[in-house]
Amino acid sequence: MDKTEESLPNLIERAKLGNQKAFSTLLNNYWNDVYGFQLIRTNNENDAEDITIQTFSKAFDKINTFNEAYEFKTWLIAISKNLHIDLIRKSKRNVLQDSHENNNEAIKRVLDDAPSPEDSLITEQNLASLLAYIKRLKPHYQEVINLRYFHELPYAEIAEKLGEPINNVKVKLLRAKRLLAEIIKNNN
C-alpha cells in the first residue's frame, strides 16, 4: 500500500460506509497480491483473473464482517482461496456427473443442440427483455455492459475507451452485473 495514501484502517472504515473511492483504492492496492496468489494456484491467467474479481466482489459485499484484528491482505487471500476451492469442487462434481451419463445421452444432446424455431423466438424475446432491464441501469453501467458483452471488447480496450484503470472497469462491470441481476430478480 502506498504510504502517502491514507491509512488502511481509515480506508476500510470508509469502505464500510459505502465510499466508492475507498473501494477503488483497496482494489488497486491489493489486486496484484490476490491475482498473483491465484495465478500460482491456477496456473491460468483467465481463471486467476475471474477468481480475483470474484474475491473483491465478495470482499466488498462482506466488508462489514472484516475483523480489524487480522491483516486485510490475509482476509482477501482467505476469501480467494475458498473461492478457488469451491471452483475445484464444482468442476469435479461436473466431471463425475458427466462420466456417469450414458454415451447415447451425449449423442442425443449433440444432435438436439440446434435451436428450433421456437427456441429462436424465445431467445429474441429474452434479448428484448434483457435490453429493457439494462436500460434501467445508470448510463455508466449500461456503457460498460454494452462494450463488454455486445461489442465483445477486452477489458484493456474498455479501460482505454472509458479512460479508467482496468481494475475499475472490472469492478464496474461486476457491479453492473450485480445490479442487473437484482433488477431481473425483482421483476420475476
TrEMBL record:
Domain RNA polymerase sigma factor 70 region 4 type per the UniProt entry, residue ranges: 129-180
Entry keywords, A to Z: Sigma factor, Transcription, Transcription regulation
Entry keyword annotation includes Isomerase: no
Domain RNA polymerase sigma-70 region: 31-93
Matches recorded under Pfam families: Sigma70_r2, Sigma70_r4_2
Recorded coiled-coil stretches: none
MF annotations from Gene Ontology: DNA binding; sigma factor activity
Keyword Translocase: no
CDD domains associated with the record: Sigma70_r4 (cd06171)
GO biological process: DNA-templated transcription initiation
Family per record: Belongs to the sigma-70 factor family. ECF subfamily.
Protein name: RNA polymerase sigma factor
